[in-house]
Amino acid sequence: MPTALTRFSTRAALVAALVSSAAFTTALGPPHITVRKVTASDNAPAGAVLLVEGSHHDKDAELNIVGRAEGFVNGKRVSQPLRLERQSAGHASVSKQWQDGTPWILVLAVDQGAADSHGLAEALVKVDASGTIGAIEYPAPGWIGRSNTPKRTATAVIDAMLAQMVVRR
Fold first, then answer.
1. CA-CA distance, 72 to 84, in Å (whole number)?
2. Alpha carbon 87 to chain centroid, angstroms
3. How far is it, in rounded angstroms, from Cα 10 to Cα 61?
4. In 3D, which of 101, 35, 88 has the Cα closest to residue 60?
5. Which among 84, 100, 101, 136 has most CB atoms closer than 10 A?
6. Distance from C-alpha of 8 to C-alpha of 5, rounded to nearest angstrom
7. What count of Cα atoms within 13 Å lies in the side-chain half-sphere of residue 163?
């Protein structure tokens, strides 16, 4: 018959295993991302049009903030990386790096850990053909199945958003 000490030791070992496992990281959740348009009252660098903020369990310095612009150039589907200017730990700005005349979806992401092992959060920013920044959407973060692979917005979803924006022109 197990003693109270044996049961406690078993539980302590299970908790220690959980805390050191990737499953514990998954349970804590992915990072968080906030994107907003630059306003006159912001202390933003010249030319900045968006401000990006990422956080994850108070470890902002370890975050990686990246972005890309998805759109059409001369009728051809393109994806181009965005240069983000780091403002401070967990904060970056984005200047306009896409051409007018066609709609764009800017995919901004915050990830943490090697190969996003601590998760990823994305924001999708719609830019109309005139270059005006419109809606900012936040797809639900999560994991692919029961893995520790962060879920990214599917290319098909971005393509559908772009197609809808082209039709509205």
1. 21
2. 17
3. 36
4. 88
5. 84
6. 5
7. 6
Q: For residue 143, what are the β-bridge partners? A: 150
Instruction: Give the span between the Cα atoms of 49 and 95, in whole angstroms.
Output: 5
How far apart, in Å, are the Cα atoms of 67 and each of 3, 93, 115?
55, 11, 16
- CA pair distance 34, 94, nearest whole angstrom: 13
Residue tagged 């990823």 (tokens): 120
| pLDDT surpassing 80 at residue 22 | no
Q: How far apart are CA 68 and CA 97, in angstroms?
A: 10
pLDDT tens-digit series, residues 96-126: 999 989 999 999 999 876 655 567 889 999 9
Spatial separation of the C-alpha atoms in residues 128 and 120, rounded to whole Å: 26
Residue with tokens 């915050």: 110
Q: Which residue has the higher pLDDT, 26 or 164?
A: 164
Q: In one letter, which amino acid is 104?
A: W
Q: Which residues, 6 or more positions from 41, have their beta carbon under 8 angstroms from its beta carbon?
A: none
